[in-house]
Amino acid sequence: MRLSVNPNDKTPIYRQLYEQIASEVLSGGLPAGTPLPPIRTVSRELGVSMITVRSAWDMLERDGYLLTRTGSGCFVAPISETHRQTKVDERLSSAVDALVTDAKALGVDKDALIALIGEKYR
């Protein structure tokens, strides 16, 4: 797993880390039981605060993506297919909501938006 952050992105760094790991878990790129690197290591490698990394890890655990085993570290939690699909649907719905809002604000009609999505999906 290769994590990266963009300090120029308006998205907070802890959220960037959260999104990367959650996406990997949902896509199957990080299967259940996979250990995550220690917070200190991630903090050092990315040049960010340990508190920032801890915030991301805590959110991931709260949302059911990670399990913490005292003395052993953090591991990807097992996720049922139903839970995985619900999370995927939630993330896609949010992204589509933002896209539709932007398209409407820019005066792009539904057919043009659907055509653009079709082109990008290829």
Q: What does this 3D model show about the protein?
A:
The protein is mainly alpha-helical and 122 residues long. The chain folds into two domains: 13-76, Arc Repressor Mutant, subunit A (Orthogonal Bundle), CATH 1.10.10; 81-121. Helices cover 60% and strands 7% of the residues. The protein contains five helices and two strands; from the N terminus they run αααββαα. The protein has helices spanning 13-27, 39-46, 50-62, 81-105, 110-121, and strands at residues 66-69, 73-76. Strands 1-2 form a two-stranded antiparallel sheet. The longest helix has 25 residues, at 81-105. It is globular, with a radius of gyration of 17 Å. The relative contact order is 0.12. The model has no long low-confidence stretch (mean pLDDT 94).
Outline of the structure:
The protein has 5 helices and 2 strands. The protein has 122 residues and is mostly helical.
| DSSP E strands, number | 2
- 3D shape: globular
Structural class of the secondary structure composition? mainly alpha
Report the mean per-residue pLDDT as an integer.
94
CATH topology of the largest domain: Arc Repressor Mutant, subunit A
User: What is the succession of H and E elements?
Assistant: HHHEEHH
Summarize the SSE layout with pairings.
Blueprint: H1 13-27, H2 39-46, H3 50-62, E1 66-69, E2 73-76, H4 81-105, H5 110-121
Antiparallel strand pairs: 1-2
Helix pairs in contact: 1-3, 2-3
